[in-house]
Design goal:
Number of strands: 8
Helix content: under 10%
CATH topology: Methyl-cpg-binding Protein 2, Chain A
Strand content: 15-25%
Strand order of the largest sheet: 2-1-8-3-7
CATH architecture: 2-Layer Sandwich
Structural class: mainly beta
Order of helices and strands: EEHEEEEHEE
CATH class: Alpha Beta
Number of domains: 1
Shape: globular
Radius of gyration: 18 Å
Distance between the termini: 53 Å
DNA sequence: GCCACCGGTGGC
DNA sequence: GCCACCGGTGGC
């Protein structure tokens, strides 16, 4: 019944403000116009590198000669998605919620079903699918609860990591693309955010 | 040690 | 009373 644009109607909202992907050639950021497009690129980013040319699909004249669409400064909280996250099935929504700074986790991923039910884990997802025969065609391999990684590792409270050895010097090493989230809450963190800037070599 | 999962609860 | 958010922890 009240399926009415349900999704996106009220409570369901996304922490992500802008979707951006880095050009594999010139390393400039290109804004991705829609979440759907972003998810499509993200799924195949390993097989198909993103280039400024790719953005011509929605920006006919853009090229590596144009400056970056967005500066990677501290006006946003940056996070890198992992590659190979499947596109969200039609009728569903994949929602990312960034947690408060200084907590034990960075973000939560959840899926909203076509009938507006919020699911928090693979367990809940498969149970829900089993209990709803009309969703039998839905394969759980189309879902991933893997959250992105913050570029600023200090955003999360330090664990018993100690010694901070170089082991994790490059956060999200394999990930090619990133998303931005709004960094409201605090005033000007400023401190070290800019240092976390993309090591993005090789 | 990490993280997927879920219970508790504070704020609405 | 509900639910968004967070922390604890069991299983790997």
């Amino acid at each position: 019944m009240e399926q009415e644009q349900a999704i996106g109607a009220k409570r369901v909202w996304e922490s992500v403000k802008l979707y951006t992907v880095k050009c594999a050639k010139c390393s400039k950021w290109r804004l991705i116009p829609t979440k759907e497009k972003y998810e499509e690129i993200r799924e195949r980013i390993v097989e198909r590198s993103f280039l400024c040319d790719t953005a011509r699909a929605w920006r006919p004249n853009v090229s590596c000669n144009d400056e970056s669409d967005v500066k990677q400064d501290d006006s946003f909280l940056w996070a890198m998605d992992r590659p190979r996250i499947p596109q969200t099935p039609p009728g569903w929504q994949r929602i990312l919620r960034i947690r408060a700074e200084g907590g034990t986790k960075f973000a939560d991923v959840y899926y909203v079903t076509p009938s507006n039910k919020r699911l928090r884990s693979m367990v809940e997802l498969s149970r829900y699918i089993n209990e709803h025969p009309h969703l039998k065609g839905v394969n759980i391999s189309q879902f991933s609860f893997q959250p992105p990684v913050p570029l600023d590792e200090k955003y999360i409270a330090k664990r018993a990591r100690s010694t901070t050895h170089d082991t994790s010097s490059t956060p999200a090493a394999g990930a090619y693309h990133a998303l931005q989230t709004q960094n409201d809450s605090s005033g000007v963190p400023e401190s070290a955010t800019t240092e976390a800037k993309a090591p993005a070599q090789s």
